[in-house]
């Protein structure tokens, strides 16, 4: 069954190669479901009860969703390092102890764990998609009193699943967060989206600015990006009603330059792993690779949380790039034999590998199928908001790539040469 899904999903070798080389024809996944339009209308009852500012210079409590994921772990770390706030982490778990264990496991997985960091975390066992996060009225009211800002990073990330399966967590969850933020004590919301939303369109896109967002009629059918688009629409409507909010759109996120600890389910690292396993690389090594380190993304978000910004959308990108050929050369330098292989042969090798490596097959099925491609992404508003902060995105260098290859080899995601 996995092989059938894999063969249906992998149509071209370009899809294997991730966001910088995916052609426009591969981005859509069918028609846009009719419920998307209705979902993108914020409930009229979700209105802030009072006016508050966006900047929270000394936050007492931050509600963080998605703390057990890749970027979420970096957000926990950045909040602990850059504020004195207590970090309330909403986690799907049986109880608070299990929720704490999941946060701790994520910090360890990405080499961010420390006793002082975990001590700042207050775990909350709940569910984004359930009214009131599944908590009692008393606990919900207490949380509202203790939190003065929300960072909504939680989402179910799967580019192969349809919108209907992702709707509860990714759309209903965002509406619940906005309802919470607009309660008796309103609080700013920082929503984590993706630059891919701005280019998830049927029209050609050459430049993606922080003002860009496709209309409903222009959207492609990628279920995950549809959910993020709806989330942005809901946040923008809440902002128009007076709720302070920022939409943060990171580009393809990688690990810290210090550790290289990153999530293995991203299409770029899937491509690297696939190339190593099948012993070949696709043509087109002049494609540009841009990765933005997660610690920079998290630090920039926290800076905006503390200092505010006059703009609704921020792009978090790497202004530098690296040729795909450089990636292959770093792997060859490690001892991997990676000749350039014709596309048809490489597809055949991948299909054969999928029959004995279900992890590889599943990773390719779930590889990101929508992204800004060759479009130029601009970030003038973000640069203005971060001016004077000392924060700058680390450049794309062979050393940054090597850190990641070391990490993935240590964790077993990549084999050792020979």
Low-confidence stretches: 1-28, 366-373
How confident overall, as mean pLDDT?
88
Number of domains: 1
SSE ordering: HHHEHEHHEHEHEEHEEHEEHEEHHHEHH
Q: Give the CATH superfamily.
A: NAD(P)-binding Rossmann-like Domain
Distance between the termini: 31 Å
The first-level CATH class is given as: Alpha Beta
CATH topology: Rossmann fold
The SS-based structural class is alpha/beta
Question: What is the helical fraction, as a range of percent?
Answer: 40-55%
Beta-strand content estimate: 5-15%
Number of DSSP E strands = 13
Largest sheet: 7 strands, parallel
The CATH architecture assignment turns out to be 3-Layer(aba) Sandwich
Helix run count:
16
The outline comes out as globular
* Strands side by side in the biggest sheet: 3-2-1-4-5-7-11
Gyration radius over CA: 21 Å
Please give a handful of descriptors for the protein shown.
about 425 residues, alpha/beta, Rossmann fold, two-stranded parallel ribbon, disordered N terminus
Please, could you describe this protein's structure?
The chain is α/β, with parallel strands linked by helices. The chain has a single domain, classed as NAD(P)-binding Rossmann-like Domain (Rossmann fold). It is 42% helix and 11% strand. It contains 16 helices and 13 strands. The chain has helices at 2-9, 13-16, 35-39, 70-82, 96-109, 115-119, 137-146, 163-181, 223-240, 267-278, 294-307, 324-333, 343-356, 358-365, 380-386, 398-410; strands at 61-65, 86-91, 121-125, 149-152, 189-192, 207-208, 245-250, 253-254, 288-289, 292-293, 313-316, 322-323, 376-377. The strands form four sheets. The protein has a seven-stranded parallel sheet, with helices on both faces. A two-stranded parallel sheet has the order 6-13. The protein has a two-stranded parallel ribbon with strand order 8-10. Helix 4 links the parallel strand 1 (61-65) and strand 2 (86-91).
